[in-house]
Each structure stands twice: as structure tokens, then as C-alpha cells.
Amino acid sequence: MSLIIKTQANGLHQHETKAIAKIREAFSVEDEMRKNSPWYGYAGYTLVDKITKKEGEFDLILVTNSIIIVVELKDWNGKSIKSANGNWYMDDRDMGISPVTQTRQKQFILVNKLKALKNKFTGNPGFVPRVYFFVVMCGKVNFSGLPEDEANHVISIDKFIKFANKIAFNKEFKPHPNAQHLDKDFSLIDKIFVTNDTPPKKVIVQKYKQEEELLAHPQKIYTEYEATSTISRSDKALIRQWHFANFKEMSFQSPKKRAALLNHERIISAEFQQSNQLYKTALVPLIMPEEDQITEQYNELVEYRQSYLRFNDFINTINPNLSEEDKLDLIKILVSKFAEMHNLGISHGDINSHCIWISPQKDVAISHFLTSNSENINNQIEDLQSSLAFLPMDFQAKLANVSEFKKDVYMLAIVAWHLWENKCLTPKALTNLCVNSDHWISDLVKKAITFEINNASQLLREFNARRPMQAVEFIADAALLEEYVTTDKVYKVYPEDDEIYEDDDNNTTLYRSGDHLVKEWSDVHLDTFSSSDILKYQHFFERLKEATAQNLSYLPNLVRYGISTKSRSLFVVCDAVDGVKVDEIEAEKENRLQLAANLVEAIIHLHKLGLPIGRINHDSVLFNSENSSFVFNDIIDIRPYLDHESEYYPAHIENPTSEQCHNYAIMYIVCQILRFNIGDDSTDFKWISDAVKLELNETEFPLGDLNRLLESIETTQINSDTPTIRIPVPDKFIQLQIFADNKRIYVTLEKGRNANDIVVKLQGVGGSIHFILDPNTKSIRFVTGVRESDVVPHYVIDQAVLEIDVNLNIEHSAGRPEYTELSNFLFNLDEFSTAIDDVLQDQTNDQYDILELNTDFHQLTDALIIDSQDTSFTDGFVNEIVLDNDHDEAHKLAALNIDTKKLWKAILETETEALPYIVLSQPLQLVDTKIYIAKYEDDNDVLDKFPKDALISLIHKTVDFNGEDREFRVGDIDIQNSLAGELRIKGVKHADKIKVGQVLYLRTKADKSSFLKRKNALEQILRRQSDIPNLVDYFEPTSKIIPTNYDITVSDRDFERYDQKDQDGKVIVSLNDLQREAFRKLISFGPISILQGPPGTGKTEFIAAFVHYLFEKQNANNVLMVSQSHEAVNTAAERIRKHSQRLDTPLEIVRFSNRESAVSTNLKDVYSDSIISTHRHLFLTEMEDRVLSLSQSIGVDKEYLACALFLKVNLFGHLSRMLVSTESEDEKLLSKTEWNGLSAKLIERLKDYSQELYSSLIGLNSRQILDRENQIWEMLDESFEVQGKAANNAKALVQIAFDYDQLIDSPNANYETYLSKTRQFICGTCVGIGHHSIDIANQTFDWVIIDESARSISSELAIAMQSAKRILLVGDHKQLPPLYSPEHAKALGRKLGFSKNRIEANLKSDFERLFTSPYGQTVQGKLLIQYRMAPAIGEMVSACFYDNELRTGVIEPLDKPYQEEMVRVVPSIYFNSSVQELRSTVTWVDTSEKFSDGVGTTFFNKHEARKIMSLLERIHSDEQLLKELKDRSKPNEPPIGIICMYGEQKRYLRKQFNSKSWNEDFRSLVKIDTVDSYQGKENRIIILSITRNSSDNKIGFMNMPNRINVALSRAMDRLVIFGASRLWDMPRHKESPLGEILNYIMERTSDKQHYQYIADQKNTSNTKGNQTKIKFKTNSTRGSNHE
Fold first, then answer.
1. Which of 733, 1171, 1396, 1610 could form a disulfide bond with 1386, CB atoms 3.0-4.6 angstroms apart?
2. Alpha carbon distance 1314, 936 (integer Å)
3. Which residue has the higher pLDDT, 1444 or 1663?
4. d(CA 1081, CA 1050)
5. d(Cα 291, Cα 269) in Å, to the nearest integer?
6. pTM as predicted
């Protein structure tokens, strides 16, 4: 009898199929054991345990006559396998969890299934068959080194098949005589596998795992599945699963015929090598198997491009957003692809929705060449191709007698029509085809489907001929100048008192009139203005208006300006100002430097503002040296002013531009201010004089800007004299000088032995000095050491808490040492005082910790909670704590009031320390021999900080045995193929040294800091070169700037336009009264406005309405919107776009990102690369027509020019490109041999251009063609009889076309700059928008809106803010603060005097600094109605974090009727749940019983994790609840979120969660992450793991409310908090955020529907027995109980 194996569809790998065939063959040999009945096998099945819900994927289950064997097949080839920590390693490569462990779990699942049938077995009644399991190794690898308990279950396939013999079988398994009748129960066992709830095992092909089904052939010949790499989710492919048994043709039972079929697409794709564009267009199989591998059910791996959508998917998602012109562009690109195919003599044969793929960039890919044909190949499957087609048979019959090319054109036209009509292409649509439209494309489609067009090339030509070219004519109306026109005569309104000058050449006069200066340009005739004149004058007046609005201190107050029709003149009137001229300045060196810097900053800003500037000379600038100010009293001019005779004119430059003239004049004046002649050396200002000489000698673009001059001035200011302090010391110490190392003496502070002493160490170049400081008297008690050292060791820098600029001169004292000079210097530095306070605060905390640890906690808490009359002890203790807290608050407040300019300068100076980084979350995983995957977990995409063409290295930093920092390069990042959370690393070294949890830094090869753009942006603002020049002043905590009132009225009708209605017309979303109030305030006052949006208050809806209003009602030219996260950018941009489409507001959008994967589907068409790609593809399709259209103008025939273009682009150019490919290790498209033969196919195509040239080149290989290029050009000229100038012009033209073809794909094409300057709405992330290719710094935006701005550090905000006329900051300073990298925090701490651990606690975000300032109070808006959290959660968050200001727009009706509209209703799905924790809205589950575990500076808590897993298991068992949650969940939005306060707890919980055998449905319902990754997200159920419960009773960063607020406010319906209440109930922590939350809940536990407390096991009995003793102070202002 044979072995009968049942196979589940899709269930097997190729190697498994081969191994099972070998097992079947061995066990089919006749043997006594199988004489009565065959044995059975089940291959590729998945079984699910009904109780545990665990899944097991079974390669093979062998049912014999006595036992059952579970077989796990492994086709591993290597040297040896070892086992360690539960994983297997082959040749040191981690192969994952031990297969023995996994197969044992599968054995358990099968045994449980059999136990359920125990009483039904008849062969051996009452007994369950024994189940054995083996891991069967099919490859060649040594596994003898495995431990015995695993080795017993591992066997080679050759040894396993010997069990087919009865002797070997009985020796191994020793079956009981009574058990040898299992054949009687085969039908019973079969029921386990034939039930509907047995899902097929997912197949894996070449490391790609089968995912969802994408396509099924109509004849069931094959099915296609999306497949994801098991190593990296960024790698995708298609698995095409062939079902050869479904072919009607018997010939397909032959492996040879199957191989011919599978090879056909590869043969066709080889033809595409003739065309670079087509080779990239085709999606073809990736691997060609051997004939004997092609089984009846064969899995083929096919190329797949993740961003591309099949035709119908594109129609449903992207196409509706496209304009008519966009659709026509796309149709043109689509037709051009098939035109190129037809030019090569290749037909497709089955054009339909299944084979056309379109990317959001409007690139087209083509697949399914099984039906293709070519005149150059031997088609071995021609007789089968009709069976392979997707076209219905009746449709194929209709096209039976039509040529292949006409058939393609027929279907191509239908595809184009459906794209134009935005309709899916289905069999029904084909049957009911109706082409009826007045549009010209309708006529073209009709012509194609009546077979009047021969091929796709003709279709493309006719498309181009019919498509009208749009002519644009613009006429400007003089009404644009109406507000600036007057009939007043200028000289009557402003009579002349004193003429200053009259310039006849420029028709300009400047005179004084009372307290005013009047500048008049004569001969201005409004009635003769052309459109360009109107626009020129409008631009002039708008720039003046903008300058007036900015209230620039260096421009005189503009009183009036306009055009007088009576005087026929343009005039500008300003206040007359007083001051001295440059040669009259009397000031000290520092003031003169400041004047020079201010002057340069001013002209740079005016250039950016676009203010028309005229003469700059000795008389143009008036100075006030007392306050380093100046005024340009005559600088505005509508006409360029060039005085060639002036000493301020750059005579050394030929034909200088106006800007070069201005820059030279300013540089000349700077030299005059600093008292040296331009071009000469200066002793006092060497840096500046050197910079001036460099600028004068610049040849490439002299005086292009003044940044080099400004930097030299700033360098001189920074490097002004460093103070030197003399320190007298006793004779026992050496004398030495300590110099500042690059302006830095490093200060280390430590606690002394005595309570109030501080040990201070100052170290610089030359050595160090140590002394004891008394902070109370602010005096130095004595010096303890002086040491000599030539350099400052790196570990000293690392330990330093402060940097100061001073030189120290240590000398022996004549008498008793006096240290007053040094102590006064130190304590006059605010940073030093702050650092001292920091050390003292640590000291106070440590003393308190000792006191608390020495107190018996239970005794203390009893004393606090027992209702006792004796409160002397508790009052005293509480008073001590209150005093301690007061001290802490005072310390914090002092630290918070740091000057903003000082903070921003510190950030600027430490920006080079701020390398972006990741924390490795999993071991480095090897994808293949060249690529590793580095996974990290972060809400923000670390690669967003880099341009898409950046060369980035991954760096690991460590400390050597000397305490010195060392670093090594791990590898280089493949940015294009990396994803958020997953970096692909090439050239990896030292992978074994990189461990989970380590910090890895990203660094570009071009620059050690990839944050140069942030640094430059902040520098621009500090130099007052931003569009709002005094921008930094608005962020000062004490700013009292009077806001500008723009007097804008927004009506209720305006707001109603943003109402969203359901299908019945009922309003379901509308801006509430508080949102409207904030809207009106923000738009009316500025230039900087600020909006606080607490959790769930509708920030995105608000921003969308606000931006749309700016375009529609305020006629904004352009708006830039940025945010911290891609998700926030996508969501807001989509809403804005919906408003624009719904309200018919034209809006041109561009979404910038360095990777498409970060852009949402609905914005793919406006993704910058999509727009650029469309232009690129259109150029390529039009290139030949564009070139040939110039044939007549250069004097050659079109035929000659077409042949020349073919030679340059398709012959020489294509062969050169493909040659490079053969030498590339990364992208080897073809071998050298294949390349050498490629010329034959290209030469064949020459027949269409020149028969003579074709005949001459036949037989030449690719190498010979390239070597004879010059010769071939001569042959071309001779063939067409073209020579001389005409031939040279033709070659120059095709060279330009070829060069442009190359340039168009390069990153230097400046497309992104063009898009950012021409689109209306520009959006991206805060850092991503700063890429140099976008050039934000050199643009101006009417509005800049920054979402999530409370999370941004200053330099991130600066990128967008620098270019704004008006700014709206949106955020919430009570949620997550800005995040500094560890190195940046450390360096910033040294600058400001904070310890690195306190940066976050002591530095307000810029959002908060502005929001809480006097200015901020006048321009702020608040959104204070939240629509996310259930009332019990919302009111708790409001009470504990928002001073009860946050109101709730959510109701929980508890099955009672309700009337409210436009509120969220909490579903009543929890009250009857079997899960106790979910019956109340808020639950605190106590975990005080066990302490948490520490790992470095982080924590995890096994006890808490066990309780959370228990909760999840009970939720998992509540099937009704799970169904309700799933039904209410949106795709990719899990309803259950577990938030961990510590990263290590997240890792531990994920590991525990993944080890459980949940079904896939449940896995998709749960998300586990840290609080830092959760802002902006929400889940129906939030489970918060507080984690920390350390024995020292410290709470670390959890004393800060921001993170706690974020964690709690993510919950929509239910909030379950797991935490040690004993820690948060301590007197010391009662006022901490979690202490208040615990108290809030305990006050309300009588309201069981909304709040409950579940005690830990050990505390349960105490709680029940002493309930009367527990007392919590009630505070009625914190919220109310729910009825």
C-alpha cells in the first residue's frame, strides 16, 4: 500500500514539496505495516487550539497504523548548528527560535485535538494515539552539537525515511500491541483536517511570505499573492501560485512544457534590454527553476513594486484626485510604453486591468507577458496563449482575425478611456463599452476600437496631434494700483524746504519738507502702463507695505507713497531722521563691530524682503553710535541705480548686478566703520580684512552675498579678549597658566564631604585647578590641587557640567591666598549659579531619599491614613515635604526663566553635537551576504532629517579603557529602501559587537552633522535675517510686544462652510464656539499667533478650515505647513484638500518627503517626486518629437535627425548605460556576454532608419560598436549626404537631448526648488522641509503653520519660521516636550549649567515660552472641548492637567436616551464584559507586591507584565467583546493600546505578547509602544504600564506631568492603569502627577461604573479588612461623580 498525502492549497515551500515527495516514495514501498491499509499524511495544514487559540503550521503530519508523527522540514545548508538561549545559530547566524521548541508546541496542539476525540477511537478504545515529533533536516549541516534534549528530536531525512522499514520503525517507537489498529480510525482523524476552521499554511518562497490574495486567473490557472520578506517588510514580491492540474491541455502534465511556459516571460523581457525605459518598465519572474522543480502546484516569485497599484486600484484611490490635464499626461505616458514595445516588434496580447500598474508618480509598469509575442523569438507556447489570457473567450473571438498590434491598440484605447472616465475596467465594463463624449479623446478612442490605428506608435502620434497646446496670455489691470493712486500734487501737499539732490539721469529728486523727506520720480504716466509696468509698480508698493508692517528700525517711518496722476510722478514720503555719517562715528571697538554686524544683517534682510534698493553711499546711512543703531535715510528706489564714478561702485567687476553693487557698497561702509581701507590689512580686525580680500578676489561669483563678511565680524566679536583671572595659591602647588580650549574652560562640580561644600574642578589647555566652594557665602574656602596637562581629556569634557570663557593665571601668593576675584567672576555667571543649584538640589533629594528609606513605609502610611486625632507627627512630616517641594519648585522656576537669545545661541553652538540616532530594538538581521536590517522604534522617521540622495553612515560610539570616546562605522544606510523603523545597512562591520538597546548615530559623509540646515535657519533668525526680523524677541518669556491688529472679520456664514454633513444633510461636524473664537483671534492678531490644542480637541479640523480660509478669503499666495510627524502632515493636508475640492477652491499642493512610503495614499499624486516623475516621463515621451520639430531650422532632413537621435540615445547611450550595469555589484541587469550580444538587436532596429547604415554594422558586437563611434557618425553623414555646419548642428542637438535625458534623472535638476516656489500649499515635516533642494531659506510665505510645535526644538522651528510673514504655532505644552539627543542634551547642559538629565525638566519648549509670555497671552487661542475621551477619563485629565478648563464633548449614555448632537458616544459594549477591569471607565490595578527591575537607566516590571498578559488573555477569551471592538476599529488602528512608560518594559511586554499563540486577528487588535511614540494617537482601550516601582522609592522623570498626560489621554472608552499604588501614595509623591491621579480615582471608587481600584494580591486582605481605616482627602474642584 502507498502513502497517501493530502496537501492544503498554498501550504508548502518548494524544498518541502521535494522532501515530502521523497518521504512519500519511501513510505509507499510494500511493508507488513502497510499491508492492511495505506498510511496517511497531511501536508501544509494549520491547526488552531480552541482553548489557547494557539496556531501551529504543520509541514507534515504522518498517521501510521500505530502512532502519529509531526514532521518539521528544514532545508538548511551550512557547517554546523548550535543552540543558545532558546535560539538556533547556523555558522553564528541567528536562525530564530529553536525549531524543536516550535514543533513541540505544534505537538501539543495536535494532542489536544486528539484528546477531544478520545471516546470515539475504536482501534484502541479510551486511548489517545501517541504523537511523536521530529525536525527533519533536508540540507547538509552538522547538528551533532545540539544539546541532548533537542538532539533527540532532530534527524536527517535519509535516516527518517528508514522508518518506512518495520524493524527500524519498531526499534525507534516500540508501539504497544493494542495501539496497532489506528487504521480503523483514519476517517476520524481526517475530520481534524477537513473542517472549515483549518486555514492553509502560508507559503514562503525565497524568504518571501505569502500575504493577501491579489488576483485569480479567470480559468483558475494561477493565483497571485502579495508577499513580504521575512527579513524586511520593505521588500515585496508577488507569489504566483500555478495550478497546472487546471489546464485542459494534457501537455501541461509535462515538466518540459511547464518550463517552457514559465520561461516565456523571461525570453520576452530579454528583448527589453534594447530599451532602457522598457527594461525598467517590465515586471517579470525573478527566478527560473529547474524542470524537475516545477511540480503540479508550483510557486513562482515575480517582481513587485510596492508603490505601484494595479489599474483598478489606481482608479479607485489616486485617479479621482487627478485633473483632466493630469489624466491626459498619464494616458500619454501609458501609450508611450506600448509604443516603445511595438517599436521593438513585441506585442503584449492581453492588455487589461491585471497587467497595468501605475505609481502615484504616474510611472507605468507592465506585467503578464505570458501572451506576448515577438518576431525575434521562437514562441513555444503560442498554442496555449489563448488559455492564459484574461480577456473573455467571446471577446477573444471578436479579435481573432485582428493583428497582434491592432489588438493591443484596441485594448489600450479601452484602458485609456476608462482612465479618462475614472471607471474600473471589468468584464462587464468591456461588454457594456460606451464611448460617448464631446471631448477629442473620445474620437481617438473610437478610431482605435474600429481598428483604424495600426500600432501604439501611431496611436501616440495621433494623441499628440489632437491634444491642444494651451496658450497663456496675461493682461494686468490698472485697477491693481488703485489704492496707491492719488490726484494730489506732491509739491503742494509736501512743499520743498531744502533740496538734497536732483538726479536728471534717473528723473529723481530728494528734498526735505518740514519733518519729512520726499523722494519723487518724475515722468510716470499711469495711462500708458503696460501689464509688466503695472505688475512692477504693484510689486514695489507691496514691498513697501510689507516693510512698513515689519516696523524695521533701520528704515525711516514711511508716511505715504503712491502715484500722483496730477504730478505724473511716483513718490515716497518718510520721516526725516538725524544721525552722523560714517566718517563721524565715535565709538569703541565693540560698538563699531556691532554697528558693522547690524548693517550687514539689515541689507541681507532687505534683499530677502525684495525691497527695491537704489543708491548706497556715504550719505545713505545715518548712525547713532551710542546704541549701535542706524537708519537708511535714502535707499528705496524703483529703478536700478549705478554710479560708475562712485567709490562705492565695484569697478573691478564687469557689468555688476544691482545686488553686487549693494553688497560692495555695504562692505565699503563696513571698512569705513572699522577704520581701514577696503582691500588693506587690518591689525585690529584681521579676520574681517581677510574676508574682505577674499571677497574682492573671488572670481566665480564675487559679492554674491555677504555671509562670509558677516561670519568674519561675528568671529571677531566672539574672539574678543577673553578675561584672565589671577588665582593666588600656596607654594606647595605649581604655578601655571590655564587657557580656554576654543573659548571653553570645563567645569566639574561634585558634592563635598561636608553637607554644604561643593568640589569644583576647572580644566583647560595647560592643566586644572581643584577647590572647595561654600555656596552659602559664595566664597572659595581653599584650593585642593593644581595639575599640569597639555590637553583636555575627552572624559573630562563628558563629566563637565558647564563651559566658561576665561583664562586662569595660577601664581604663588605673597601672603594668605585671596580668591575673591575668582569667586565673584564665577557667581556673576548665571550658568554657574544654576549649576550650583542643580548640585544642591541633588544633594537635598539624596538626603530625603535616605530619610525615606530609613522610615518603615507601612508604619508611615498607616499613620497617614488612620483616622486619628493625633496629627503632630504627620503634620510635621508633611510640612517638611511641602518645604522640600517648595524648594524644588523655586529651583525649577529659576531655571525656566532663561533668556531666549541665550538659549537659541546655546542650541546653535551645540548643534554639531546633535547627531540623529536610533536605539536598536532587535539584533541586526542579515538579509543576504551584503545587507543587514537595523530595526528601531520611534514615532518619528530618523531618515526624514536627510535628503534622499544622502550618503549616511551608521556610527557606534563607545568608551575605551582610558575613558576616551571611540567610534566605528557599522555600515552605510541604503536610504531609498529603508523604512521608518527599519534601516537597511550595507557594508556592515562588527555586527557581533552591536547589541539590542545600544544607541547608533547617523552621520552623512559630506558633513559630520546632518543638521546643518537647522543650524543655518536658527542663525538666520538670530542675525535678524528672517522675514520677521525681530522674531526671536517674541519668544522671550517677558515679551510685551504689542501685537499687530490685522482687523479681519470672520462671519458665522464663513464658519458654516466648513460644516460636514451626512447623507441626509444633517451636520455631524462643525467648528464649536471656542474654536470659532480662537479662529477669529488667531487670524486677527500677529504676526505670530499660537494655538493650544489639548488631546482630542479637533486641531486638525481647525487647521484645515484655517488654511482653506487663508486661500479663499484672504487670497494668500502661499502657505507652508509643517509638523513633527508625517502622519500629522498627511492628515491635515488631506482635510485641507477635501475642503478645497468640496468648495471648488483651486489649490495647488506639493507634499515634500524624502521617501514615498511616508506619504499617505490620498496625497501620492501631489508628492513632490510624483510631480517631478510625471514631468520626466512626459519629456522622455516627447523627446523625439521635440528634436525632430527642429530639423528644418538647423537645415537637415527629419530622417537624418531621427537616425542621429537613435544612434546617440538608443545605440551608443544605451550600450554605455548597460555596460555600467554589468560592472555594478548592486544592480547587475545582465552579464558581459549578454551585453556584448545586445548590439545585434539594436542594429536590427536601424533598418527602420537607414538600410545602408544597418548593412554596414551587421555582425559588430557591443564593444566594437562603442569603439567605432566616431567612424559610425561619419558613416551616417555619408549615408544621408549631410556635412559641415548642418551635421555639426544636428549632432549638437542630439547631444543636448541626450544630456537632458541624463540630467532629468539627476538630483541636481532643481525640480523641488521650482515646486516650492510655484505651488500654493507646501507641506512636509519640520526638518524634512529644510533640505537644500527645496530652498525654503530663500523664499517668503504669507503664512507658516507649524503643528506639534511644542515638541520641536528651536532649530527645528527655525527652518520654517525664517521664511514667514505670519506664523501660527499649534501644539500643547502640557503634552510631550521637545526631545534632545543624548549628546545634544549633554552639550546644551554644559552651556547653560544644567545637568544633562534635567534638560527636559528645566527647559520650556519655545511654544510654552511664547504661550505664557505677556505677548502670548494677547495672541493665544485655546481649543477646550475634547471629543476623544469618555467623560470619566476626560474629566480626570482636565482636573489633573488642565485646571478643569478642558470640557468633554463625549457622552456615555449607559443605555439611557440622550439628546445631544455632534458628540461622540461611548459604545455600551463593556458593561457586560467578563473582564472586570473593563467594567469601569477608569481602573487602577495595583502592582505594589513586587519591585521593578532596572536595566541601566531604564526599568521593566515582570510582575506588572504578568498581570497585563492575564488581562489580555481574558479579553481574548471574551469573543463578543472582541467582535464589537473589531467591528468598530478602522484599518491599521488597533482598538487596544498598551503604553509603557519605559522602553525596556515595552520590549519585555512585546516579547511576552509574541510568545503567546494568539490568532492573527487578535494580534492585529493590540499595539504595544512607549509614551514617546504615542502623541497624536488614540485607542478605544488604553492599558498603561507605569512600570517603575523601585526599592529606593524614586520616580525619576515621572515627576513631570507631560508624559503622564499623554499616556492617559490616548484612551477613548476605557483606561486601565497598572501601577504600584504604594509608591504614588507616599507623602513625597502625592503631589506628583500619578499621585494626583491615584488620589482622584480613590476619591471616586464609590462610583463603580466609572472608577475602580483593584488591589494587589498581598494587599487584598488588608484592604478588605481595614476599609474603614482608609481615608482619602476629597477635593470637590477636581471633577464630579457620574450618575
1. 1396
2. 35
3. 1444
4. 10
5. 20
6. 0.73
